[in-house]
């Protein structure tokens, strides 16, 4: 009987899998329950992904000043992988081989804030993830086929403090970026910061993305007054071809900003017609600045408008329909909802309140639909696609859920009525993310609150405390906090992607390896000397390196090409050379190269660093460096 | 005794009915198809190879599952126990096996045309001999691969014979060996021959 049931179990499981295509809902799994049982529909049941089960969504969250991107699963919040971008990462050997060293250049860190997924027709297409570097004005592209950083562009010319990034247009024509800081342009020019208003400038740029390869280059730039551009978003539907950024410091202060940049009741948002900017570049209505075609918005009407928004705003988010644009000012307890149709009408009627340096300022009331009293310190707004908006409240440590327009006359009379729910988060939330909020069809379901402080919510780890990300279920009338996870420093924004939207490769197919120094067979391995350069072609395979002995002389340069000839998933090999600071980690089917000057003499063991097989310990060899004296006397 | 021989020679001179000839035609098609389809499959399953590694044996080639990758993987694993890598070139059977299958197809067609019971009996006898010879040679292959292990290999295991039909445990692997489409068609061939004999057992000589 027992035998029969054990034979039937897989069949039943298989039948269940056939009946439930895609992922098993977490907590619903019979397999691997390990005897646990939780009340159905409890938070535990909804977030528990049983052993052997997989998450429903990917969560890509930025690592802030750690310079990396982290991948977690939802709803489990389990950390799955680290994608190194702007910093070395010994775990995958990123920043240790020649290719990634060249990509990183001289910078040892970056400040990743806002990941942006590539899109097609306003929906995620699962090809790339773009992330910005606020610190060194760069932008990077991660390929979701292998979860690797493929390109780092920058420092972007004429761009300082790449914070207002990475906002992807509907068909990934551009990733849009804007400057948080202003400096004398072109970069490298000196001017006294006291002459900030006159000598300093900001910049809004479109980074052009090649539709096939994804290769990025600077497309167009619009020079702006020295406002501090903050967050932005791209239009869709009726607002397709437009982009929006908030700014703080329209006061153009250059010192004691916390007070001096908070004097005005309104700051300007930039309303950018990027299709017009693209056309202006194609028509040659630009001047060259540091090798880039730059548009002067005063001379090229129609590319830039200003819109006043309440005091020191942070986020400006276009909703899934593309009609509503919500901006929130940290220092005012409201989210301002603008109607893109009214905005267009105001532009058509030239309903401007004034002009600033030749750029029209649209009348606030001409574009406003309403100010929703969401709470204290509103920063960012996300959408669930069901007509609701969710705004993070930094000061209040809460998320407000509110109803998007159209509003009834009754609601209009008192917009408190459209605020539907509020939930406490812990503590001081910055960004929040709802899957697909920046697309035409958000997933809804989950909201992740990325909180800046976590004090007291976890086992103490001393003063360097982790960040707290909280998972909120938004499927019901009331928001429900169902899980929290503590992360590396420091998630700013994140993107959520349905698990089945991508199918990453598990090995690099041998046929695709186009590295000229790749070898696949032991008989093709070996060393070649050209003058002082010794070039070694090596293969790594369970459980040996070929060759497993390298002979060089002091003063030589060793160029080592290692190909992992495995085609088996997870059969990663590493190559560490003791006391030579060499750390290659090579995925199956991959070739990596390192160049090292042989300055130390002696014999240096090398070994496989990434546990591969039963005889992993035996996977080793020797690098023998003969002293120059001994070589000379031979 | 004499009557037996008389009956036997009468039987062997019987001609074949239309139905039998059609069965022979079908038998020829079957054996040609078997020459192109996988005959046999060997699968290896272990905890870290849940999806299994598979080898597909054809009359003329050896193909690893997962686009050929499984053959590399099996050889990779086998190098630990000092087993010779499985290389298609080493299987000389794969050079004459398609030829042999072709001969059976031709003999079946010949019997269908000539239409004598005797050619059917010849065909059946020859086929039976061929089957046992092939299975024996396959078994011997498996035996030598499992017994001629390199004494300098990293791991020493007791020599073994991979199972020919069914499942067995080898170290951390469960090895399963089963016929596939080609193998099934191949076994259909003698049944069709037997059918052809049966349906013409009362035919006039």
TrEMBL record, chain A:
Record Pfam families: Cupredoxin_1, nos_propeller
GO molecular function terms listed in the Swiss-Prot or TrEMBL record: metal ion binding; nitrous-oxide reductase activity
Major location (coarse): other
E.C. numbers: 1.7.2.4
Keyword line: Copper, Metal-binding, Oxidoreductase, Signal
Any one annotated GO CC term: cell envelope
Keyword Metal-binding part of the UniProt annotation: yes
Gene3D superfamilies the record matches: Cupredoxins - blue copper proteins, YVTN repeat-like/Quinoprotein amine dehydrogenase
SUPFAM superfamilies with a match to the protein in the record: Cupredoxins (SSF49503), Nitrous oxide reductase, N-terminal domain (SSF50974)
Compartment(s) where it occurs, according to its Swiss-Prot or TrEMBL record: Cell envelope
Name recorded for this polypeptide: Sec-dependent nitrous-oxide reductase
Signal peptide segment: 1-21
Top enzyme category: oxidoreductase
InterPro entries: Cupredoxin, EfeO_Cupredoxin, N2O_reductase_N, N2OR_C, Nitrous_oxide_Rdtase_Sec-dep, Nos_propeller, NosZ/Cyto_c_oxidase_sub2, WD40/YVTN_repeat-like_dom_sf
Coiled coil: none
Domain EfeO-type cupredoxin-like: 536-625
UniProtKB/TrEMBL annotation, chain B:
Bilayer-crossing regions: 21-40, 96-113, 120-140, 182-199
Keywords: Membrane, Transmembrane, Transmembrane helix
Protein name in the entry: Uncharacterized protein
Phylogenetic placement of the source organism: Bacteria, Pseudomonadati, Verrucomicrobiota, Opitutia, Opitutales
